[in-house]
Amino acid sequence: MKPYPKYKATNIPWLTEAPDDWEVWKIKYLFSERIEKGFPDEPLLVASQNMGVVPKEVYGNRTVEAMKDLHLLKLVEIGDFVISLRSFQGGIEYAYYRGIISPAYTVMKQNTFIDAGYFRYLAKSKLFIELLQTCVTGIREGQNIDYNRLKNEFIPLPPLSVQSRIVSYLDAKVSSINKLIEAKKRQVELLKEELYTYLFSEKGDIESLGYWDNCFPQHWESTTVKRIFHETSDKGYTDKELLAVTQDRGVLYKNDCSENFVSPSGDYSSQKLVLPHDFIISLRSFQGGIEASLIKGLVSPAYTVFAMNDYNELLFIYYRYLFKTKPFIAFLNTLVADTRDGKKIGFKEFRGFYMPVPPVSHLEKIKELSLRLDVLVIQVEKYLQLLTEYKISLISDVVTGKVEVQEVALQQKIESEVVLPKIIELAPKQSKTHSKGYDDAVILATLVNAFGTEEYPFTAFDCQKFPYLLHRYIEGVAANYSKFAAGPYNPLLKYQTARPIALKKKYIREHTGRYKGLVTDANVQEAVGYFTAWYGNEPLEWIKQFRFISNRKNELELLTTVDMAIVDLQNDNMSVTMQSIKDLIKGSPVWKDKLKRPIFSDDNIERAIKWSYKLFGTQNKEVGKKL
């Protein structure tokens, strides 16, 4: 699409120019406020950011419901707009139904100068949401839109014929994008359904399930929960990150969540420690099952944490999925105990019940399916992210007049307008058959995908230190690294293996902006898929602990230098002490000047030794995870 032929300046702070035949109007001249009340028999409506204004039964989620004084609620007509308590986050909502809604909301009725469809798109555009964020009031109890401020703001107004063309164009485009999104989501769901059936059947041919006690083949072994798991309640780890336990995304770092989860203030010593491969029973497990953690962190003491008595990868994968199935959730509901804050399940209520233990050969099949699913989920998430970003950008560009709508463009496929990664589902029993150089390229691309952005690309320093740490974790040793001024350095990564191969395969590309470095390219999800197939998700979750450390460059130089010195000392059968580390550094021509820097003080070297032991163990041969 091309820009309009001619533009003119506007008095809108967030939109400096508009097409020449567009006007700018104050919102109050385009809308009037609807404050009609006294309709207690109309259906109750919900203003949601993903569905618009719809009846409560259509929305489905649990909401606070007004059961009295319904005559005080505001009337909403089809085509009205509702400013909700969260509009500053997601825009103003369009009403698809007639009904009544909380009097705390503002209901807007459009006049004949503006097409409701045009404003529906404008009200959800990025620039308009930024405008809303300048019109908020309130801090402690939440932020609300001040309509008296908003109604005096200006918005662009195309001629009605152009508005109508914009609506037709965006309706078609958004519909095409949404169909693509649903198709990719369905691809994931189909693989989930296949995996689901194998949790209860060796042939994956079940049609319906009975009660928990007769869900599984009779020849499968079973044993009590307490013979497989034990409860843990480790506390006092104040230096760990807080975790969020969610039903739809599993266990995440709170810093990675956009939601405002309640966090403890001050001391974290009462929080429970969660390790990779632990399971968590939350206060909502009776609704969504038990969550498996792949990361380390802290959760509320109100949660129950339990772990396997003897870790078994195949059984962990099996129970990770089994604990999220409908039959298991129904089983959990027989164990719940009412509390003041909801329903709670404790380990003591759970420990005496029997769990299936499928044959090893069948567990291998489930592992294969879970691996394919993990890879597909990663690829589809990136695919959907790009599609969503494209949709947001397209809407914004069209409704603000940056591009002119062309009718012919309606016939173009979305895939021709945005570069989308290929979805490559792994074949069954994918094996690790690849060269060391290609391995390096896949690891580098996966790290760039996890850490690099155009604002903060993956630097040359990162390209050395992060692969070093990952190899130490996965294999116990980082091969081909030598002592360079900035710490361990592998020249092959830059000149012969990781970087050139990843660039050639279009996994990564050079970025030159405010900062120089590497960012992802069109085929990066292929590399991420291979990484997950070869190593699983755990190493990547493990490496993410270094994302938010302060003074990262100095800290990683300290850690990797001291760790490399530890490995050298251990290989020479020498004791590891702060002094022996200093002597080794002092004896290296390229490292000796490090001891003049504050980051390599005695205290920091001692700290780095403990840090290395904590990450990799105390003996080189026992370090890491063999895969």
Task: Describe the protein in words.
- It is a single chain.
- Helices cover 39% and strands 17% of the residues.
- The chain has 627 residues and is α+β, with helices and mostly antiparallel strands.
- The strands form 13 sheets. A four-stranded antiparallel beta sheet has the order 4-11-8-9. The protein has a four-stranded antiparallel beta sheet with strand order 16-23-20-21.
- A hairpin with a 3-residue loop joins β17 (243-246) and β18 (250-253).
- The two termini are 50 Å apart.
- The relative contact order is 0.08.
- The model is unreliable at 620-627 (pLDDT under 50).
What is the makeup of the main sheet?
Answer: 4 strands, antiparallel
Enumerate how many helices there are, as a single number: 22
Q: Helix share of residues?
A: 25-40%
Averaging pLDDT over every residue, what do you get? 85
Taking strands numbered 1, 2, ... along the chain, how are they ordered across the largest sheet?
4-11-8-9
The secondary-structure class comes to alpha+beta
- DSSP summary, beta strand count: 30
What gap, in angstroms, lies between the N and C termini? 50 Å
Work out the strand percent: 15-25%
Question: Which geometry do the CA atoms define?
Answer: globular
Query: Gyration radius, to the nearest Å?
Result: 29 Å
Uncertain regions spanning at least 5 consecutive residues: 620-627
